[in-house]
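DM between two lab members

TW: hey, do you still have the AraC family transcriptional regulator entry open?
JB: yeah, one sec
JB: this one, 245 aa:
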Amino acid sequence: MILNQHALVYVLEGTLELSYGTQFYTFKPGMTLLIPRNQLGRMTKLPHQDAPFRSISVLFPEQLLRKHYETRQGNSTEEKPKGHLALDRHPLLESLFNSLIPYFEMHDELPPDLVEIKISECLTVLDACNPKVQGLLSSFSEPGKVDLAAFMEQNFMYNLSLEKFGYLTGRSLTTFKKDFKKEFNTTPGRWLTQKRLEFAHDQIVVKKRKPIEIFFDAGFENLSHFSFAFKKQFGYSPTAATSLS
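TW: and the structure you got?
JB:
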């Protein structure tokens, strides 16, 4: 999961699970969270018994954020939350989401003018409920240059293009490849494949997870590609690895 826009999520029914590397979070009905743009993570939506998972999600386009905050003094230098920002229950939030439910149950597309009005209402409510929101949403800077080794070690399992990895580390593709070679003494593609396979091997042999359960978590698009790369690396298939102690 990586969003190009900030997202406000309110859980109506079921359970929402978020994970960032080794950190896991669970959200139940009535809970609200704000997920920043360019945030790497995994999202799992779980039904409740026979009822499907239901939520309200609002995305904030940059042009509407700029319009909303151009006359407001936001503290964009405040430290940004890592992962997501969980919002406490608040009467204004409850009222906001109750008013949005009918729109999500409609089959017709909403008029653009109405969408802009409702997004502006969301932003006004968020500003009133949590001061940290304004600092996050009023910042429009691109990702800055970060420690490449630390970032890659933490995020290698996400199936992103090299261009996206470069962008998230504050580098052009050319600079990313150059810095990567200097840091790891190999190419990004080879390093990523090696790390993902080592991670998958540990999950199968040590954590006793099934290949079909972990190939996506390890950064592979499909099971067949994962199985081929795994056997090429270790000399035996992922299924055979399940019998190793």
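TW: got it. The domain at 148-241 is CATH 1.10.10.60 (Arc Repressor Mutant, subunit A). The beta strands are 6-13, 15-20, 23-27, 32-35, 42-46, 54-60, 85-87.
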